[in-house]
Amino acid sequence: MPQANTTYNYERVIILGGGISGLGAALLAHEMQYDVFVSNMGDFKSAFAKALQTNNIPYESGQHTWSTISNASLVVKSPGIPDTAEVVQKFTAQNVPVISEIEFAAAHSNENIIAVTGSNGKTTVTSMIGRILKTDEADYTMGGNIGESFAQQVAQGEASHRLLEVSSFQLDGIKSFKPHVAVLLNVTPDHLDRYDYKFENYLASKMRIALNQDAGDYLIYNADDPAITNALEQSDIKSQRIPFSLEKQLDHGASIVDDSIHIQLEQSTFTMPIQQLSVKGQHNTANAMAAATTAKLLKIRKETIRQSLQSFQGVEHRLEQVLKINKVQYINDSKATNVNATFYALDSMEQPTVWIVGGVDKGNDYSQLYRLVNKHVKAIICLGTDNSKIVEAFGNCVDQMVETSSMEDAVRVAYKLASAGDNVLLSPACASFDLFENYEDRGRQFKNAVRGL
């Protein structure tokens, strides 16, 4: 059984939210034999409810009953619940600690944590590092914001390495969470609706990944990102800083030399020709630099790193080539939930593109896409319950713009508008919650609709 290593009072643990992180926190609390109760404002997935029932963990759904949960000594909050939620405010007013699931899990783990964050690329980089660890036959788990929650993995047993993708929402709820290797890929406007529409608030949230690091830890960061470099200049982060850059050569860190990734760490050097990477595009080269630098810090053999990056096939819903029908390539980039992610997608298009875009706008500024839309996009299909901002932004950029309210309609319209040699690209630049359960559901519906043509 894991041991708690912080001073939290675990006498009565209330879990707010019954999704993946809530279930994981509940299972870990149950494993630790704490008095635990799960309160979920929505309905539970049947599999999650069954897991709670199997473990005799009490729960409620459809409401937060204050008389039942008000005696909490500690609250573990799911990342989807904002700090402004009434129930969270009530606990805060009572001085009850409200923490995130990764904080709760880390308090029960003394293992080597590798944490990856950024507005874009964090799933790809986490998966790349996972591929390297798997090839190395290392003892590791991979989870956090993808796959199983950190807490559930801690509950299931020990591991040498805990590889985590972490979001800004998860980082908002940490107090002592301390990764040995932190990776900060980029910070561009995203989720601004959760941060009072202030980019500086969102940036500060991302920077928390290094908040508790000390001189024995490492922060791998994007030296080409001015928001990150400016924040680092003003911070007192104590970890060893290791930059990576596509734009300039570095004496220390990772950069491009003679069309190869070149990583210099103390007395150790790693090189790999860019052309040997299995995933293409400048953003994927940067992702590979971050992953390879992490692997070098973990003292993994150079050949293992090269072999892994040569065979890595990308992640689902990220520029995923689905099918080619009548010489039209259909591409699923549903994971592009912000403008910067869609920028990478449009920038990688080499053929005329029918672009499917839309969803829940999070304070997006679409102006940075104008050049790419003018260059690559022949038609736009809006997919959302409110497309007004997209229509206003791009109405003068293309000759054809069609509004749709279901994935099947969007794909059928795209089929009619596309010609041989074109791409049909789903890259929404928005969250999915207006019409879909999540971005995975959106991506799978796109693939199903394409296969049904």
Automatic annotation (TrEMBL):
Coiled-coil spans in chain: none
Residues given in the record as ATP binding sites: 118-124
Catalytic reactions of this protein: UDP-N-acetyl-alpha-D-muramoyl-L-alanine + D-glutamate + ATP = UDP-N-acetyl-alpha-D-muramoyl-L-alanyl-D-glutamate + ADP + phosphate + H(+)
SUPFAM superfamilies found in the cross-reference section: MurCD N-terminal domain, MurD-like peptide ligases, catalytic domain, MurD-like peptide ligases, peptide-binding domain
Domain Mur ligase central: 116-294
Main location as per UniProt: cytoplasm
Family per record: Belongs to the MurCDEF family.
Purpose of the protein: Cell wall formation. Catalyzes the addition of glutamate to the nucleotide precursor UDP-N-acetylmuramoyl-L-alanine (UMA).
Protein name, entry field: UDP-N-acetylmuramoylalanine--D-glutamate ligase
Species per Swiss-Prot/TrEMBL record: Nonlabens ponticola
